[in-house]
Every structure is written in structure tokens, then in C-alpha cells.
């Protein structure tokens, strides 16, 4: 599709100014540029700005730009300041931000008496463990929720512009109040970051022999522990009250399990542990799966030789068998010349997948439901 055709089909028209050329700002720039939208980038770091431009996230902002939409993608501790500045500088533009905390910047702006009728807070629930323009990708928003916080002063046309931005990037707009948003992300984003970091922190003094036993489960549990401390100090500080509420409840749960395990033979102790695991089962069931559906899949673990092209061959042969891969995880065993590909499929496809793959010479390590 040509840039002109993409621009005609894009919901967001005109120039979009993005302040902050880090991971989210540059990723938005890449996605909009791919749609043929004129993207003007600005950043306090000249090196970061040049890098984002070199990678194709947009062009350098100019003094005579007249953006229809301004996207503020800066750290939480300066979000309110930049929103205020952009509202004053571009009196005909709608201003949104993508900070992961929504209530604190809004309250700060209200306390300053800033006219907010052209401001709409938003937050794409997307990201990567690594930040910066070099890690930016146009596709990180596809299929992800994008929270939009409107109020009684928000005009329909301004709301449509911000929701159109989300839709153009492949995200799903969800309207929430700032308060509800901050409570929600405390539970599903901010506390999980702390839990992953605390668990991964236990590895620092662990014997090397213990860490050689690490499998996919612990890697999944601690994946986000690689996140940048500087950013998370700001995020957690800005959303401290909802985070503390969840942490206090979690600490009580941990204490109860620890008490039960101190003497597992005490009446009720084993039930307490079982109920903890069962409640986790129930919670996982509520998480949206593929296409937003709460669905359970079965997993095959296939042994894949550590040679070029083997994973592509596996996917190709699954396609020939008519098996749709719902999810994939890869694991390499230390010192082994093969990897383990855990493939999630519909339960009805398991038998056919096993028989077909084995007939083609693949080794099935296990099947899990």
C-alpha cells in the first residue's frame, strides 16, 4: 500500500507531534509513519531524537508545525509539565499523553488551573523490557488495550481523534476513569513488576548450580524484571496508594501460606496450600486469552534440533497438518544440542498434531493440558 493510500485510510490526519522519542513515542511514530501520517518528533535529548529519526520514526519538529494532535510520551515526573506546555503552545491541537499513571498528572494540572478541555489522558498497555528508540517497533500496540480517560468536558471530535490514534495503531480503545485506570494497572502491571523483581533479586546470591536448573516457568515469572529501575521508581511513586493496597493484600496471602508450610501436618495446613493454588487457577482463567477470549489450550513440547531452519520447518509442517499455533514458548537446555518448543493448540487438534509430527520425524517430549 502506498503512503498516499495509507494516509487516506488513516483516522488521524494532518501532522502528529510526538514529544519524547523513547520506546513508546518512537513506536507510535513508526506506526503512524507507516500509515503515511506526517510525524514531527521532539525530545530533550538530541542523541535520542537523532536516533529515532534515523530509524524512521518521523522527522524533526519545526517551529512552524501546526499539529492536529500532540502525543506526550515522556517520563511520569515531567508529564504534567509537558502537557501544560504543549496545550499553551498549540492552542488548536488536541493533547494526549501515554503515561502509565493517569490520576497524578491530571490532579497536578487541575491544581495549577490549566484549561484541560483539549487534553485527554490515555495509556497503551504495551511495551518491552528494553526502552529507547532503538527498541521501538510499530507493531507493539496491535491487539493491546489502549485506555482513554475522558470527562464531561471532552468533545466528541477530540475523543474520536484520540481513539482514532489507538485504532490506527491496531490497539483497542477502552474508556476508563483515571481512578479506575490507576487501580487496574496497580494490579495487572505495577505489582507484577515488583513481584518479578523481588523474585529475580533472590537469584543474585544463589549458587550457579541452582540457576542451571532454571526452566521456562521461572523465566516466564521473572521476564519483566529486566525493566529500567529509573522509570519504575517514577511509575510506582506516582501510583503508590493503589500499589500499596495490592501489596498489603499479597503480603497477607504470602504470610498465610508461609504459616501453613511451617508445619504442613497441622490440620487445615494442606488445604490452605491447595486453596492458594486453586485460587490461582481461578484467577488465570479470568485473564483474556487470544482475541480476548478466556480459552484453555493444550500444549505439545516438541524437541527441535539446534540447527538453522528447524523452527521454520516445524511451523510449516504444522500448517500442512491444519494445526493453528495459538502460542509458542522456546527453551534451551544448558549444554544440549536441541531446544524445546512448547506449542499451544486447540484441544481438538492435539491428537492430529502429535500423530502428524511424529510421522514426519519430530520427537514429542510431553503433552500438557
Protein model, in words:
The chain has 369 residues and is α/β, with parallel strands linked by helices. Helix content is 46%, strand content 17%. The chain contains 14 helices and 12 strands. The strands form 2 sheets. The protein has an 8-stranded mixed β-sheet, sandwiched between helices. A 4-stranded antiparallel β-sheet has the order 10-11-9-12, with helices on one face. α5 links the parallel β5 and β6. α4 (76-89) crosses α5, α7 crosses α11 (240-262) and α11 packs antiparallel against α12 (269-286). The protein is globular, with a radius of gyration of 24 Å.
From the structure above, extract its key features.
single chain, 369 residues, alpha/beta, Rossmann fold, 6-phosphogluconate dehydrogenase C-terminal fold, VC0802-like, 3 domains, 8-stranded mixed β-sheet, globular, disordered N terminus, amino-acid biosynthesis, ACT-like_dom_sf, EC 1.3.1.12, Prephenate dehydrogenase, aromatic amino acid biosynthesis
